[in-house]
Amino acid sequence: MGRTESQVDKKKVFPIDKSYLCFTLNVLSCLGIWNPSMEKGRKYWLYQAYTMYYVIVIMLLRILTILVRAINASNSTEFSQEISLLAVLICDAIKSFTIIVHRPELLTILGIFNWERKILATDQIKYYRNRVITTAMLATKIFTIAVAIFLTNYFLFYFYVIWKYSDYEIKKLPIGSPPLKYCFILTNYWVAISIDFVIFTALGLSAVCHDAFIMGVMIHVMGQLKILNFRVERSSMTSLIKTSDDEVEENSKVIQFECVERESNESVRLDPNEELINCIRHHQQILKILEIFRKVYNVLLLPQLSVSLILITISGLQMILVKDGGNLDGTLVALVFCITAVIQLFAFCWGGNIILVESDKTSFAIYSAQWYDRDIVYRNNIKIFLSLVRNPLIVSAGGLFDLSAVTFKNILTKAYSGVAVLQNVQD
């Protein structure tokens, strides 16, 4: 017999239908990318209008403006800088369209994350889940805040350099270039540069927060794999283990998640076959998450890796050229831009790598279960499960490159080689 955590104290637990990625989704809602309304009412359509304005007026016009500035660049350094920004904005626009168009699929992923809490679990599983999901949610939140702060500081410095060389002329600002200048009739320089900064920063934040969402999905997939491995190792148990005082005290320090749990009664007998089947079902749900994730982002991640390689190469070359010219401000802008591209690349590759590593542990978790003491049905189910987890789970970009530490190293190596070759050509 099971009971829900909400029956104990509903006000102090994380609701069973609430998304683990609620913080990042709230940030995306503020930026006009994620509609917070679930039903198609007045609020839903007002937000849709806001999204269309954001995408068409702000995003697409900004892309055209940067394209015009790149065409009219007066030197190679300025041209490479504008082309880099153009590549970033185009890639960000594609990601924004992706999250808008594939909203139903993403909602499905968010719902599947809560599936594991709806099957019976012991106190040990509940406490372990609380720790794992709390850590995953905290990591996602910290990553979202960190990249937002880093990007905001980058644009502060970027617009400081623009202000320094603009001679207080609006036409030298990005917002003063066509076609964006035709949408804003501005005569005051400080108003113009402030609006320019807000628009540019909002576009950048929508991009990095979408990256944080993708990263959050991969972090929580890793969390689900951790919970799965924990359940598998204990699937052969036939009786409940009494919870220690240390476990109870440690659990009180983390978020309490509403779930279906078993009654804490030592006389309750566990069915190992039922527990193992639940583990297999949980693994199938994780596979479903990755299948939907690949459907949504598989094609997108390939140009993302290509753009990262190009950006790191161009910004590295730009640092060398600007440094030789004695322009410290330009060198710093290129350096920060390069660091941003490396962090973005690292996030994607690290997210894929943690899934690969944790999924590889599932087979060891199965071997760690005391299957040799169980009946023939349990051992046959173990064989089936082992056949399903023989190969680790891999997140790929376009089906060509795996998101892993090896890919991260290879891209950095190629970027360094590209900078060296371009520098020799320049010399």
Can you tell me about this structure?
The protein has 427 residues and is mainly alpha-helical. It has one domain. It is built from 13 helices and six strands. The strands form three sheets. A two-stranded antiparallel sheet has the order 1-4. Strands 2-3 form a two-stranded parallel ribbon. The longest helix has 53 residues, at 272-324. The protein is elongated, with a radius of gyration of 25 Å. The N and C termini lie far apart (76 Å). This is Odorant receptor. It comes from Fopius arisanus. Its main location: membrane. One of its GO terms (biological process) is signal transduction. It is found in: Cell membrane.
Q: Proportion of β residues?
A: under 5%
Number of structural domains: 1
Largest sheet, if any? 2 strands, antiparallel
Biggest sheet, spatial arrangement of strands: 1-4
Determine Rg (CA atoms, Å). Answer: 25 Å
Distance between the termini: 76 Å
| Count of strand segments | 6
How many helices in DSSP terms?
A: 13
Oligomeric description of these chains = single chain
Helix content range:
over 70%
Averaging pLDDT over every residue, what do you get? 80
Characterize the overall form.
elongated
What is the string of SSEs from the N terminus onward?
Answer: EHEHHHHHHHEEHHHHEEH
Global structural class: mainly alpha
Low-confidence stretches: 1-9
